[in-house]
User: What shape does this take?
Amino acid sequence: MTARRNARPAVKVGAQVRFRGVKWQVVALSGQVIHLVGPDGDGEAVLAGHLFADPGFSVIGAEMPQAAPQWGLFETAPATAREKALAWQRHVREVECGLPGGPGSNGAVREQYDPARHTLAEREQSKAEELTALGFGRVSRTTVQRMRLAYRKQGLWGLLDHRTTRASSPTGRSDERVVAAVREALRRRRGRSKGTINGLFPLINQILQERHGAGTVPVPSQATLYRLVTTLARTGELPSGPVRQMPASFEGRAFTPATALRPGEQVQIDTTRLDVLALFDDGTLARPELTIAIDVATRAILAAVLCPSATKAVDAALFLAEMAVPHPARPTWPDILRMDHAPALPHQRLATLDERLADAAARPVVLPETIVVDRGKVFVSRAFTAACETLGISVQPAPPHAPTAKGIVERTFGTINHLFCQHLPGYTGSDVTRRGPDIEKDPCYSVAHLQDLLDEWLVHYHHRPHEGLRHPMMPRKALTPNQMWAALVAVAGYLPVPLTGHDYLELLPVRWQAITASGIRIHHRTYDADLLAPHRGQPSPVAGRGGKWEIHYNPHDVRQIWIRLPDSQLTEIPWIHRDHVHRPFDERTWQHIRTLALHNSHVDTEQYEADLADALDQLMRRINSGHATKTEQALLARTGAVPLPTARHPEHDTARPTDIPASRAPWDEDDSIDDLDDLPDEDTDPPATTGYGLYDAHEEAEKW
Assistant: This one.
């Protein structure tokens, strides 16, 4: 179990907050509306999203939690250093609360660490004596205090012995005067005809004599000089070729139903194979893996992610951010699926305070208090549990051989298969006795297209009455997840503060790249900024990554990346042509442009990239003006921020997705970002954007 040692601050009735530079008091909560009273007695109703977005917003008196864990950096440390940091974590927890597992964990509190009997200083002294006896070296109370404060500030990263994480000097222990002479010799040879490395040795000796006098600086051996020259020389500066060889790339038992009285009190997470075939990137047909998180109190599906293969620990950590941020509505979705048009949610009358709500899907956003997971390796991994601890989320593993402990999420899988999957081509049935004889011949969707369909269906799901949701004042009426969420927010009396932008950046996917003289190159795109100047051609301070730098990127908007510089902060680096392309685009769109613009070997790299940016801009202009082909419309519909041309009304459609011939089915296209040769022709009919044959959004709206 993971303790909620560092829970997020909460806005509740009676709390004091700082907003617009003024101190306010929270007097009431109504859905997402927070009623504030100022120092002069003036009242104001503020939308929660608008309040949290204020740069100076803070909950007065609340302890600031840790930032998102830098788990990628922690994994680069040696195994012995990581094990020692984890050992220190148990000791620090015992000093703070008396239990090595943290507050709420199992076990008995030892007498010398009982907070009710001893002060914090006494517990620190007892721990110092214990660690010294255990062989940790001579540990003082000051050392224990320093480690405790470092853990509170930086998490596991603060408990590491950072001597093991520093990158070794490329010049080793060589005399700095000799190193300076080698650099000067290389500078003098720059621009001249290339000679041998041994030809630099006399020049190096001459420079040492000129600067320090004859015999003052001992001259190292030729082997040492050779190593220094090959280390300090630039790429291609020596006749032997590149001197820095960088990597080329990188039972049964009693059943008790789960109950919760407020949103996020308990969230159940599980993974299963979906009962439908999908087209994977390698061209094979298989069942994708679906991971969902469902809130017990409201039955809201907070996140649902499809993966072609097994879910990884990093994907599970990103899954947390998927629950705590609003889900954007697709441009082609009907207005009824947007949050500001949802009849059950209280946002529409205050939408003018925050225009971003108009672009959000009508789905609840909840930061969990407790997550119930099975004992799968992904959900008990250190990366996942560390991220949960930092976000103040308690992780509760389900008892072994007790599937009823997560009965709600297991039942939800059946709901998805029944209400969603069986309407799709390639549906496999729940078992082999219900499987069709030729399902492999169906024109199945790709995993990405299936995810798009699932995202839209989930908004419909949150508008459908659920028999397990009842209001005490209306026990005969089944509520929708959205209605139950709006009702319980007011009953709970508080609203957790959502993740900050920095926390979300920490949870983005990571890749490792070198900083070249022209910037950072990724798939024929160059990212550059003036602040990279001191780091061009230099290795990163992170040991164990071959000198490459930690890069975070958003797969759905590649116009910028974020790099972790030596100050440990993530800094945004824009694409050099970002100002020319004002609309977000993903890797798939970029690959589509590259397949259309053939690379001429006589055109330099910079001109080729500029031509690609211009072609991308022209494509987006055609989209905005309504002159794009159907293929281009479908390509950008997933990332577009500007509404596309109005879709046809369902009653005027002459074909449903199930009526389209297999030879013209749009889901035959390959969603791989590296191979887009299988995109549909321009005369291919796109899938209907108002329900995909599952629901008629306008008809559903009449029922709501």
User: Anything to note?
Assistant: The two ends are 41 Å apart (CA to CA). The chain is about 30% helix and 15% strand.
